[in-house]
Amino acid sequence: MNGIGIIKGLLITLKHFFDTYIYDFGRKQKNLAPDDKRGMVNSSGLFTIQYPEEVLAASEEFRVIPFLVYETAEDGDHKYRCTSCGICAKVCPTQCIFITRKKDPETGKPIPSPEEFYIDTDKCMNCGFCAEYCPFDAIKMNHDFELATYVRGDTHIYNKEMLGKPVEYYAKIRPVNYALEVAEKAEKAEKATAA
Amino acid sequence: MSDQIVIHPLYAKLLEKFPESVVMDERQGFSGIVVQAITLLEVVKELRDNLGYDYLSSVTAVDDFPEERLEVIYHLFKSIGGAPVEIKVFLEREEPVVPSLTPMYPGAELQEREVWDLYGIRFDDHPDLRRILLWEGFEGFPLRKDWKEPLYEEDTKPFKSRWPEGKGERKELLNPYKDNVQYPREFDPNTLSGDVDQAMYKSLEYSDDPNSRVLQTDQMVVNIGPQHPSTHGVFRMTVVMEGETIVNLKPVVGYLHRNHEKIGERNTWLQNMPYTDRLDYLAPMSNNFGYAITVEKLMGIVPTERAEYIRVMMAELTRIASHTMTTGFLLNDLGAYFTPALYALEERELILDIFEEVAGSRMMVNYFRFGGVVRDVSPEVLKKIRHLVYNRLPRKIDELDKYISANEIVRIRCEGVGVLTADDAIAFSTTGPNLRASGVPYDVRRADPYSIYESLDFDVCTREHGDVFDRYRVRIDEIHQSIRILKQVLDRIPEGPIMAGKPQYVAKVPAGEAYGRVEGPRGELGFYVVSDGKPNPKRYHVRAPSFINLTSLAQMCKGAKVADAVTILGAVDIVLGEVDR
Prior knowledge:
The complex is a heterodimer of chains A (195) and B (581). By secondary structure, chain A is an alpha+beta fold. In chain A, 32% of the residues lie in helices and 20% in strands. Chain A has helices spanning 4-24, 87-91, 129-133, 160-163, 167-173, 175-194, and strands at residues 64-72, 78-80, 97-103, 110-120, 139-142, 157-158, 164-166. In chain A, the strands form two sheets. In chain A, strands 1, 2, 5 and 7 form a four-stranded mixed sheet that branches. Chain A has a three-stranded antiparallel sheet with strand order 3-4-6. In chain A, strand 3 (97-103) and strand 4 form a beta hairpin. In chain A, helix 5 (167-173) crosses helix 6 (175-194). The longest helix of chain B has 30 residues, at 305-334. Chain B is globular. In chain B, the strands form six sheets. A five-stranded mixed sheet of chain B has the order 1-2-5-4-3, covered by helices on one side. Chain B has two domains: 9-124, 2-Layer Sandwich (Beta Polymerase, domain 2), CATH 3.30.460; 260-580, Cytochrome-c3 Hydrogenase, chain B. With 581 residues, chain B is an alpha+beta fold. Chains A and B meet through helix 1, helix 2, strand 3, strand 4 and helix 3 of A and helix 6, helix 9, helix 10 and helix 11 of B.
């Protein structure tokens, strides 16, 4: 009979409508486990969440615009891990990384540290090559994706200060990777002392 | 040289038959035969009619600058499977002309237009040789090596200005070639009017003879798109109609053109990987796969076993995501605006969540490397995939299938619409679900197996009628086969390293050429790369399945109603990122 298909289709939507309430019944929205939330494998009914009031947790490997890792010295100085070797600038597919190598003012010889470090975030395609091939763990991918600004132009070219983030921040957003890195360094140090 | 050169028996046959005009390509790392332009048609006719090479996969060209030579390269296959035969024609760079293969293989039409557009190689007897991806006011042929873009900095990346004296500035403001935007001599951008499309309208054959018409009305031309929700992006169909019936149709593409291939030639080998994500953005893992296996072929490395399993797993997940989305959007095109499409998107979201966890991004995955993949899949993610594959996906796909396949509106609108016969489908170089829906059991995973597909158990899904409904059915069947593959892969996935050798950002690629292809969700995705031993590819060509599938659109739409054109286009399943490149 004609029309049955339409009614069946409309019933799906109605089912979703009721499922939403059944799924939510008896659940306190505030303290749900991450994989119990809407949009996860087991949820039924409404699939979406109310962004920006609710935000789904980003997975560890999630990547947007790189940042430079620095360690804070005792006097409050920022010690960047970057040695300005230029591998990130060479591997960058869009060529959006600009590095000026520091030079000794007297001898003119290069010092392994960046004088300036820029990333043109309008061009950056978030591919993650810079973080992947950095031999010093000095550049990492961020999780912060809310990057909208009111002005285009020079504010979108990030300089060294805008790109810098403390190592604690890195440990917070990428705990597994950070733990691996610490373990690797400890192993290396152990080998060095043994030899 | 004491090395015995082993000549493929097929090539030997051709050398025997055309002793004067056919020679082997004997450069180191190259293969195939070189044919003179005047005998090309004879050789191809022999191949098609007597030797069974009925499927023209790709037509492309290479510029040998600074040598004064252009090469046109054809890859032909048998529709029953097997390796390609590669034919090359060498031409002068000045006024290159080659006979068109379009009368023999209609599937060459759009590809030859593309070669003319980007290389300026003229194809004799081509029915409609106009620019396709670029517009009429474009001067020059951009893929020629001596052509430079307006923002030209250097021939190849990495650019020297970035390190060690890099200044954070917009290079486009310092562009030394600021004013090098040129127009053809007869073209004046200041008096640009609407008649740049005249050539296209002229190419649409429609008769002025009133007796030839069924209805006693004028034929009219209607433009559908480029800004239209049913065209899946910025795609335009110019339709000649008589009443509501379509008499002729021309696809107009290029609105999203960015010359992917030129960018690819400026990039290093590895830098191309994230760019391939942006081709078919609904199936990024397949694009990565295709590019990776092609370059690996050239480099002569084999990925590790675990990497192979992970690759196949990701490629199949991509296929499921892409097919559910297409199924949902087909209903969009039928008029059920977005409600069913969004239900179908739920499954895709869950798959994209997995991509985010393993690759770091939902769509622009950049996950494959030469010799493996970038990072391992953790046991938690495997558990998630297992849950999806065993519990959720089969149930949800069956649900989708149950409601859609029995729906009378879907059946009335889809059955018998946009029919493409098996012979036509092969002649038009159609690939993927569109080809299989016409009853041709041709799947690259079986016809020319790559990776570990040979050891996996799955069926090539076909249907007989070649209409829109069958294309939808084939996609649903393929999702089930993909689930079947995933179950085997999940059971067998071995432990071990995920990269062959150490990860390196400079790929050492020896001189030579390679054509690699994979079965993407939209069909045969081919990559043709040529290396001259430098860190950048000399030629990087993408054989985009949905671009070539568009060749048969006119054939499918003729005689249908204009509302059906939208459905037919939806079932062809184009992705404009790939069509326009």
